Amino acid sequence: MFFNKRSLAIFGLKTAIILTAFLLAFLLRFDFQIPASQWRILSELLLPVLAIKLVVFWRFGMNHGWWRYVSLADVFDVFRANLVASLAVLLYVVFVHGVAGVPRSVLVLDGVFCFLLSCGVRFLTRAFRENYFPLLRSQPRNNERLLIVGAGNAGQMLVREIRSNSALNKTIVGFVDDDPLKLNRRFQGINVLGGQEQLARLCRKHKVQEVIIAIPSATGKQLRAIVERCQGAGVKFKTLPGVGDLIEGKVTVQQVRPVDLQDLLGRDQVRIEVERIKAFLSGKRVLVTGAAGSIGSEVCRQVARFSPAKLVLFDNAESPLFYVEKELGDNFPDIPLAAIIGDVRYRARVEAIFDEFQPQVVFHAAAYKHVPMMEHNPAEAANNNVRGTKIIADAAHEFKAESFVMISTDKAVRPTNIMGATKRAAELYVQDLSRRSKTHFVTVRFGNVLGSAGSVVPIFKSQIATGGPVKVTHPEVTRFFMTIPEATQLVLQAGSMGKGGEIFLLDMGEPVKILHLAEQLIRLSGMRPYEDIEIVFTGLRPGEKLYEELLLEGEGIMPTSHEKIRVARAAFCESKILSRQIEELYQAERAMDMDRVRLLLRTIVPEFQPPEPGNPEYERLFVEPDRRQNTEGAVIMLADRRRHRTRVAGEKVG
Known about the structure:
654 residues; alpha/beta; 9-stranded mixed sheet; elongated
């Protein structure tokens, strides 16, 4: 109904404020002894002033809004409404009532008092709602006691959010901040109790149950230090997303989440050239192969942000594709979607899809990627990764797509496994095709992504959930890591920069030890490595090496306009010879001649060095520098921070 209880209450309160302000103006003007003649003027003006101000306040929307969320912007709204109302009262007095006998100062004081009372009531309402008067409210005894690390804007906004929502049942005991200028100061009525070095002591002293890290700009190193102190104090800890994930700088309790591995690795925020990518994708028909996979699905999400004319999702995995299409349909209802079931190795199906949708931009993410599995299935790896790429690339060329972006891997550099060799062969074909096509063929090469299906992090989490042990292949194995959104955003950026034939290398940062990842995940799960959860070494799997590279000798490297993207010089090969070799590879696949598949891959990719004992490259990549011997059954010494422990490797290292 139009006049609900809340509206009637606000109407009554405004009436009281207007009448009180007008009466106070007369009382103050005459030192609280109003003459009889002025009582007559007061009574004559009281109802007109009330009517005028109520109408003006209504026109300015002062009867609406939630006073519990009053802010500085509301103060300006109240000021404007009172200014107009006071001018309207002045006009009424001059042109209707007459100014004779009316004290001018009363009109000014009335406007001032009405403004102050209007603001005061609002701020008192907010103060009560945010528990600034705890004695006036009954508080539950089981409130969770919070300590907030970071007394900056994010921390202060978090305090306001928690205070405004009493249902959260949380009590903030203080801030922790390393800025000496903030020490012993109060922000939002909360004291800065000390610096981060005192975190554990403060948690014990104030019986803190949870710490919230409200420093969106914190680096991975800073977060690791805070997390270690929280773990030492035995308290729960959560964090806000990074700066890049906070939309317009707004901070809410719903954004607070557990600290995860991505936070501790400290990947920098990705800068993308929005206008350039928008020109590359907006209003275009875009096809994504492997759209149901970890990378492909994120490419779809990122592309959808730039309003393509149509987004075609191509994959042979029915159920995952169904869920990706549903998610995109819910989040981007205005973008036309087409979910296509098919296989990149089926030429007729691919050409039919290109003929129907006429894609202008193609992102090729479909590939077999699991190294040990592809070692045992070389024919399928070559068929999918080489021939599948050739079919998609040929279709993009024949149907005159504007751009083709192939997603490759660091394992294509000096490959020691079938998967890497097949991806390198696909790179060579795409680069060769770019020299005779109007389509801009580019390749984007990067390392592992955190959290992708089948990657090491989900496997470790599963092993931790079952009580361990966590299985690491080798104590010295290192890999490059990126987050999935970071990688895909840079893929879009590189695709928009490509002119044809380039191999773009994404800045992967510093390589990360897999053992370090395992230890961090165990700690984030609230347990201690080597004590609560064991870590055992199983030996390098078939085709794996201790470290990966992003650049081949002779490729050269040049910077680009983007600080996280570099470009390698294109490789040149004889088109007819390469096409013949790929066709021979296909025939060997069909005949299931595994030896010939491997031989042809070594012919196409001369730098392909399978792990063979006695091979110098094998010794360099697969065996620790200080141990050139068979380590089957050997005792591997594990150095924990506090003591050495022994573990027995169950398989041959290498």
